[in-house]
Amino acid sequence: MIYLATKISFLLNPLLKMVHILLIPMIFSGFFYYSLRPLVNYFAHRKVNRSLAILFVYFVLTALIALLGMVIWPILLDQVQTLTDNLPSLIEGFRSQVEQLQHNRFLSMFASGRSDWSTRLSGYLDNSVQAITDYVSQSLVMLSNFFLVAATVPIIVYYLLKEGERLPGILLHFVPRAYRKEGRNMLSDMDAALSGYIVGRIIVTSILSVMLYVGFLLVHLPYALLLAVISFLFNLIPYIGQFIGAVPVLIVAFIDSPAKALWILVIMTAIQIIEGNVISPHVYGMKLDIHPLTTILVLLIGGDLLGLVGILAAIPIYMLLKILILYVYRLFFEEKVEELVD
Q1: Is the pLDDT of residue 287 over 50?
Q2: How does residue 337 score in pLDDT terms, banded at 50, 70 and 90?
Q3: Torsion of CA 199, 200, 205, 206, to 10 degrees
Q4: How many angstroms separate the CA atoms of 205 and 203, rounded?
Q5: What was the pLDDT predicted at 101?
Q6: Distance between CA atoms of residues 44 and 48, nearest Å
Q7: Between 95 and 313, whose confidence is greater?
Q8: Disulfide-capable partner of 302 in 45, 144, 253, 310 (CB 3.0 to 4.6 Å)?
Q9: What is the predicted pLDDT for the residue at 339?
Q10: Are 249 and 227 a contacting pair, CB within 8 Å?
């Protein structure tokens, strides 16, 4: 069957292209659907017409975005422009700081006299900046049809919020009657898993970003708002996102002064401890049933297939597939395995 499928690729390519076009709007629609559904349900349970509740949430969200845009966007844009203009001097400052450490008597005992730290680390920094630039460019290619996404996502989200509760019933019509009870339970588990993960991740990441921004301001870190936004985006990725997001923050702090980099490291470590022991247990109620190694492998696959969007969508897709496989195993294989064991 696989061999025959390769021979009719000319028939499958249009279908794959259509899926590729629709995938990004659907991913963003699902993200906003689960983010806004608690608010819509809150008003709907208080006898507010569901359509009016959705429009009211849209209005509040639009007003909030406009307000944040007027207050935050000019500062953020100025910091991005300043960082872009000062990038060569920042690299030179990084090299200067490394050279000063290289002449430190204590640190020189751990390094060979022939090794040139400044040259090597500056080269690594140049390569990292280039790699990040290339990766961001590749990710933006996935979002090149921005107007299509911006035009379709609000409409899709509106109908999902309005008629999303009917979707399980529609899907169950394609399931044989004998398995509809298990199918309904499976869809309920999938919905609960997605809702808990997406809403919880947004809440936890938002709290973390605010705490990080306050910490950056306390130590007078340059580009504090920009670095807090970058940390927010990376912290949406579980486990490894916090480490990736810490790299640009520590580099900027180190260029300013090594002592400031140490303070930033202490602040970020303390915030991560608070997040792991206080915030996440209260938001999620329990830890995600995903092994860290599995998470890393899933994120690598998602990033290779869809770039930044794939990284953000990898864990939810994995959770859905895991629930589906578990239900299929219980229905069709568990009893047979028990019979063979007996």
Answers
A1: no
A2: low
A3: 60
A4: 6
A5: 63
A6: 5
A7: 313
A8: 310
A9: 59
A10: yes
Task: Look at the alpha carbons of 248, 253, 259, 260 in this order and tell me if their dihedral is positive or negative.
Answer: negative
- Answer yes or no: is pLDDT of 312 > 80: no
State the Cα–Cα distance between residues 13 and 137, nearest whole angstrom: 25
Token pair in block for residue 13 = 């390519």
CA distance 24 to 189: 24
**Of 203, 252, 254, 244, which Cα lies nearest the Cα of 225?**
252
125 vs 259: CA distance, rounded Å: 20
Radius of gyration (C-alpha) of the chain in whole angstroms = 24
Give 184-227 as a 3 state SS string.
Answer: HHHHHHHHHHHHHHHHHHHHHHHHHHHHHHHHHHHCCCCCHHHH
The encoded tokens of residue 181 equal 């009870």
Residue 250 has pLDDT above 80, yes or no: yes
Closest CA relative to residue 22, chosen from 162, 149, 136: 149
Q: Which pTM value belongs to this model? A: 0.72
Distances 268 to 236, 242, 248, 251 between C-alpha atoms, Å: 16, 9, 13, 14
Whether residue 302 has pLDDT greater than 60 = yes
What are the CA-CA distances from residue 306 to residues 77, 135, 201, 299, 329 (Å)?
A: 27, 11, 20, 10, 29
97 pLDDT higher than 60:
yes
Report in angstroms the alpha-carbon separations of 319 from 94, 99, 110, 229, 276.
42, 48, 46, 27, 21
The stretch 6-19 carries a mean pLDDT of 74
Q: Are 50 and 166 in contact (CB under 8 A)?
A: no
Q: How far apart are the first and last CA of the chain?
A: 35
Helix (H, G, I), strand (E, B) or coil at 28: helix
307 Ramachandran zone, left/alpha/beta (phi>0; psi -120 to 50)? left
Q: Which two tokens mark 280?
A: 């996440």
Tokens representing residue 227 in the block: 């670095």
Give CA–CA dist 175/167, Å, rounded.
Answer: 13
Say if residue 228's pLDDT is above 60.
yes
> What letters, b where the CB count within 10 A reaches 16 and e where it falls short, cover 83-107?
beeeeeebbeebbebbeebeeeeee
> From CA 244, how far away is CA 51, in angstroms rounded?
41
